[in-house]
Structures are given as C-alpha cells and as structure tokens.
Amino acid sequence: MLFPVVFSQSSFPSSNSRGGVTLDSSPLVCGQSGPGATGPLGPPGEDGPDGRDGRRGAKGGKSGSPGNQGKPGVKGRKGAIGKTGPAGPGGPRGAPGQTGKRGAKGESGDEGEPGAPGGCNCGPSARSAFSVALTKSSPTEHRPIHFRHILLNEGNHYNASTGKFVCVIPGVYYFSYDVTVGQRHLALGLVHNDQFKTRTFDTNSGNYDVASGSVVVQLQRSDEVWLQVYNSGHNGLFFDPFWADSTFTGFLLYADNDYLTAAERKANKNST
Ligand SMILES: [Ca+2]
Known about the structure:
The protein is 6% helix and 28% strand. It has 272 residues and is mainly β. The protein has a domain at 129-262: Jelly Rolls (Sandwich), CATH 2.60.120.40. Strands 1, 2, 3, 4, 5, 6, 7, 8, 9 and 10 form a 10-stranded antiparallel β-sheet that branches. Strand 3 and strand 4 form a beta hairpin. The protein is rod-shaped, with a radius of gyration of 79 Å. The termini are far apart. It binds calcium ion (CA).
C-alpha cells in the first residue's frame, strides 16, 4: 500500500538556509526502488592552507616631474628692539660758531681797596720846588751843605737831614744859590751825582760880599743835587739870623713827556 506523502513547503526550511533541511519543492512519489532522495547539504569544509607568495611585480614607472614652486610664506612679525650699542669714537672738532651778540651791561662791582701810594704826590701836573736857607756859618767842607731852614719844599724832594735834593720827577730843573760871604774867600760848587756841575769862587778879605750861581740840569729819577765847598780853607759862607741869609733854590722847569704820560694814565685809571 502506498501512501502519498506530501510535505508542505512551509514545514521545511528553505534550501538556501545553511544547516537546515531542504526538500525539493516538487512532490515526491514513493513506490519505486532506486537511490534515495538527496540528503541535506553538509556543513562547509574547513579553509585550505594559504597559497605561496606571488612573483615580484614589475618596477613602476619613472619619477614624476618636480612640482611647481610654492607660494611665498606669510611675512613674519617685527622683531624686538635690540640693546643700545657702545658709544662710538668722538668725531672731529667742529668749526667755531658765530660770535654771539653783545650781552647787556652788568651791574657795577664793589668799590676796590685804595691803591698803594704812587711815586709822587704831584699828580698829572708834576710839581717840584724848594728854597732853603743856611742856619750855620762855615759848614763842613767837601760834604753836602745842610740848609736846615726850609722856606719851601714842594713835594719834600729836598732832604734837610742830608742836604741833598733827590729827583722824583724826571725832567729839566733850574738851580741857583745866593749866599753871603764873610771875612774869607769862598769856593762853592753845585754837585750832580758826585760830579761838580758849576763852581763859584769869590775872593773876599776882611769884609762881606755876596756870591751866586745858577744852572739848568736834566735829571733822572733818584738823581741827587747839592752844594759843597770844594776847596779847603775857602769856606766864607756866612749866616746871621738878623741880617744875612744864604739860600739854595731849585725847581722843576718841565717834566719828561714819558713821565707825564704815565702819570696821566695812572690818574685816569684811578678815577674810573
Ligand atoms: Ca768879591
């Protein structure tokens, strides 16, 4: 007896499903001998061993041409200020500048100390004069005669203690002497720096007489002039306080120009 067996498709898994049972969709008919139906597919076999390495491939093509130059990069930031360097050597001296304008007049300074006394107290108008008289008869011979009675001594250039006139103002001078002679002869001379300039000799026996002399002399500063008896025993110079004088006189005629110029300059300097 035969019993058709029909399997609905829905009772078996799809042939596509691995591991499941797959039946042919066509209807199966029993009743015939022969090979059995195809069994379900077995599970997949294991992976085979790795194959051998392939041969080395052919070498690649030539190197490509260089690429184009790239664009300039972005400008960098400004660096920090460096340290100050050492001072350099001094440069050459420059040309002098132009003279500036004259400044305003300053205030007057303090008054200065008085200056030292000058060489004379005569000032710009140089003055020197003296007239002196004898106070004793027959003075010492061969020595300057001392005329001790001062009639005038402008500038004190006649020194009564030495009997000498000492020149302070260089220039031309006039000297004269008028003397009384008593009882004896007189040999009287005028001396300039130890040299007789003039001599006067008066002969006189037993009475009174007068003698005189005069001379103009160029004197330098510190020159000396005096009267002196030049011959021993001829010393008839006479003096009486009541009626007889003997005088010696001298004065400046004019001073040297150099002295006057210097004195004027000094006077102007002191007055400013
Ligand atoms: Ca005489």
